[in-house]
Amino acid sequence: MCLGVPGKVVEINGSMATVDFWGVRRQVCLDIVDEPVAVGDYILNHVGFAIRRIPSESIGETLAYYETLLAEGDESDPMAADVLGEIEATTA
Amino acid sequence: MNELQFRNPELARALAHQLETLMKEIGREVSVMHVCGSHEQAIAKFGLRSLFPKKLNVIMGPGCPVCVTDVPEVDEGVLLAEQPNVEIATYGDMLKVPGTVRSLADAQAAGAKIHIVYGPSQAVEIARKSDKEIVFFATGFETTAVATAAILIAGPPDNFSILSAHKYIPPVMEIVAEMPDTRIEGFLAAGHAAAITGYGVFEEFVERHAQPVVVAGFEPLDILAGLVELVKLVRDGERKVVNTFPRCVSREGNLAAQEQLWRVFRPCGGRWRGIAHVPNGNLRLRDEFAKWDARKRFTIDLRSLWDFAPPQLANQCICGDIMAGIRNPVDCRLFNKECLPETPVGACMVSNEGTCKIWHLYGGIPDLSEVAS
């Protein structure tokens, strides 16, 4: 439950953002994010809330790690299940 | 070593070598503790224990929120679920956690309505569409508690309430550090929890205790780099906080999240399953949010369960010692025998973040020395 999942902000509507997670678009709440977020930024989503804006210099390596976790694990793998659950935690 | 999994295998080998050198300099056994299920998952999944020097014990402490949810807290959830007109929403891992007599899964089998959710916003959505009382049984550490805080500040519907079993990590590190037979010489703190609290939260801890604290990320290389730093501090007898995850964690942390966390919750003492009474270790709703506090809204009569003796097997469970770093899952006579993920005796076998479940899935300490060389 500590991993969170990174996604790209594609639209902002008040305190909610539409965030793209590898093609899946979901609503993430911006109420507790650490820095102001703009369209195009990447955020780390945890249980449906952006808990931080990912600095641009670490977006690449962050995405690569999660892609490894998702590519190698299915739902029986706890880390992949955690990441998939984090995407589920957002609202449609 | 799986070349794909370490994006930089050479760096991984260099870090492992540094750990080896440091441990040779120390020349004795050293035990350190991490407090995060995601750290244990990464250590197990990527076979990191096979890279650790033999005399370095990296132990998972009370870092699984489901596992430390105390029996009476589960009982509260079960008794609420059994009340007419009440439905529970909670994280899937909570269903099989044993209560005094029944788990939430037992209550569900007997007809109670339990909604599995991945986050608090989903629980609020369910409440908006329902004419029942929806109680969100909220578990998790500070990273998850901030989300619960945010939905209360946003003003959920009147038929929504919270049964808070949220817990706060820094105080339990003090408890483990102060256990008379502790062998823990340093802590690896979880990166995303520290992203909320800031690493400054550990500065008071190292003033009061002999153990240094290193904040580390979740990738295999992050964990190895964090351990190198931690073992270095142990070698030099330095009590300090080092942040090896600066791309995510600052000294002051996420101030907006902290403000909401402490506006909604107050820390109070309470038991962590199998560990101890932890002063300030539980997060409970402040009076200002009493309207949404399930403990205030409903009568929960735990005494109705007091006549039941705990099941025989549960008495043999050593989850507490495992989370305190005194013993390993393989030291438990129930591990992988009577206690399995399908039929868990102790909470550490229930959750994907529990030490026993992770060791069950990945086989504990794999001997990958040949592949790693």
Helix-strand blueprint:
The complex is a heterodimer of chains A (92) and B (373).
Chain A: E1 5-13, E2 16-21, E3 24-29, E4 42-46, E5 49-53, H1 59-72, H2 78-88
Helix pairs in contact in A: 1-2
Chain B: H1 9-26, E1 30-34, H2 37-45, E2 56-60, H3 65-68, H4 71-81, E3 86-91, H5 104-109, E4 114-117, H6 120-128, E5 133-138, H7 142-153, E6 160-164, H8 169-178, E7 184-190, H9 191-197, H10 203-208, E8 213-216, H11 220-236, E9 241-243, H12 255-264, E10 265-272, E11 276-285, H13 294-297, H14 319-323, H15 355-362, H16 369-372
Parallel strand pairs in B: 1-2, 1-7, 3-4, 3-5, 5-6, 7-8, 8-9
Antiparallel strand pairs in B: 10-11
Helix pairs in contact in B: 1-11, 2-15, 7-12
Compact summary:
The complex is a heterodimer of chains A (92) and B (373). Chain A is built from 2 helices and 5 strands.
Please characterize this protein's 3D structure:
- The complex is a heterodimer of chains A (92) and B (373).
- With 92 residues, chain A is an alpha+beta fold.
- Chain A has two helices and five strands, in the order E-E-E-E-E-H-H.
- Chain A has helices spanning 59-72, 78-88; strands at 5-13, 16-21, 24-29, 42-46, 49-53.
- The longest helix of chain A is centred in the last third of the chain and has 14 residues, at 59-72.
- Chain A is globular, with a radius of gyration of 12 Å.
- With 373 residues, chain B is of the alpha/beta class.
- Chain B has three domains: 9-63 and 169-243, Rossmann fold, CATH 3.40.50; 66-168 and 254-306, 3-Layer(aba) Sandwich (Rossmann fold), CATH 3.40.50.11740; 313-360, no CATH class.
- In chain B, 38% of the residues lie in helices and 17% in strands.
- Chain B contains 16 helices and eleven strands.
- Chain B has helices at 9-26, 37-45, 65-68, 71-81, 104-109, 120-128, 142-153, 169-178, 191-197, 203-208, 220-236, 255-264, 294-297, 319-323, 355-362, 369-372; strands at residues 30-34, 56-60, 86-91, 114-117, 133-138, 160-164, 184-190, 213-216, 241-243, 265-272, 276-285.
- In chain B, the strands form three sheets. In chain B, strands 2-1-7-8-9 form a five-stranded parallel beta sheet, with helices on both faces. Chain B has a four-stranded parallel beta sheet with strand order 4-3-5-6, with helices on both faces.
- The longest helix of chain B has 18 residues, at 9-26.
- Chain B is globular, with a radius of gyration of 21 Å.
- Mean pLDDT of chain B is 91; it is low at 367-373.
- Classes of the chains: A alpha+beta (92), B alpha/beta (373).
- The A-B interface holds A 1-4, 15, 29, 31-34, 44, 46-49, 51-52, 55, 57-58, 61, 64-65, 68, 72, 77-79, 81-82, 85-86, 88-91 and B 4-5, 7, 36-39, 41-42, 45, 65, 91, 117-122, 125, 140-141, 143-144, 146-147, 149-150, 153-154, 190-193, 195-196, 218-219, 247-248, 253-257, 260, 352-353, 357-358, 361.
